[in-house]
User: Fold this.
Amino acid sequence: MIDSQGMLEAALRLPEQMCAARDRARGLDGLPDREDIQQVVVLGMGGSGIAGDVLMSAAGPYMPVPVLTFRSYHVPAFVDESTLVFAISFSGDTEETIEAVTAAALQGGRVVAVTRGGELAHLAESWGVPIVGVPDGIPQPRAALGALAIPPLVVLEDIGLFPGATYWIDAAVEQLTARRDQLARPDNLAEQLACRIGRTMPLIHGGGGLGAVAAQRWKTDVNENAKCPAFWNAQSELCHNEVSGWGQHGDITRQMFTLVNLRHDFEHPQVMHRFKVTADLLDEVVSSVEEVQAEGEGELAQLLDLILVGNVTSLHMAFQEGVDPGPIPAQEHIKDALATAAGEDEGVVS
Assistant:
């Protein structure tokens, strides 16, 4: 097993990471008053951007103001002094987030930064806005889910926009601790699932907003950890388009794809039926149909439970192929190429 950056250990420490993040985010100075906020915007990319999706899925349905996530260099014109803006960047140097939060601040947005340092920390300090630090020792942004996703929930609780956040965080920690203990045993659920997926490409389906976030996170963990293609979609949207594309090439797809259905207790009754119908429909054209059932009390616990199982599954997919899950050479190549292009552009004299 090759794991040069300790990704498996980092994944299994998610409950402790969440507890530490909860405590760091409490009692920040400089937060706006509840009545001054009309909308919440989360800025972030990749492993940092998932924090906004967790917030939208677990807290958004219960909040009195809308929550939106933007993965872009830009922010919409509606961002103003009535907008609470979470700028989330593990490194602090994510160029899209830096440009977007600068625009948001210029438009009057009330910024809270979540970062390990870098340019985002420098900007936040110069603006005098609250910063929640991300500790050293976390090997990759995708291993920092607790450190990045928990602080916005605590801040919203402190402001009064998401009462009860601490209760749901603690319930999630309890479930993740139990799941972690299961996944640390030999021949565990994730290891078995990785073996069944084998060298096929996982097609991951989730139900509703919660399942969609979990499915997308599974997909990106498989991409980054196992260095393998993966695809995701959500019920019930996939019943209106994707299902039409399965069947004609069944002799090929059954050798290439494994369907993984992510299930939770908060699915709409019709979504439950749709899972059954689509699983029956796809059974003949995929290698196998697998199912993972979330456990825990509340949406946050079940969402993070599914994500943890997916993370560890993707790590075992890497291990069984002799792939080191930590390094991401393709992304480093793109960063280097962009930096080179930017340098060349600066050197052009008009």
Observations:
- The first strand starts at residue 39 and ends at 43.
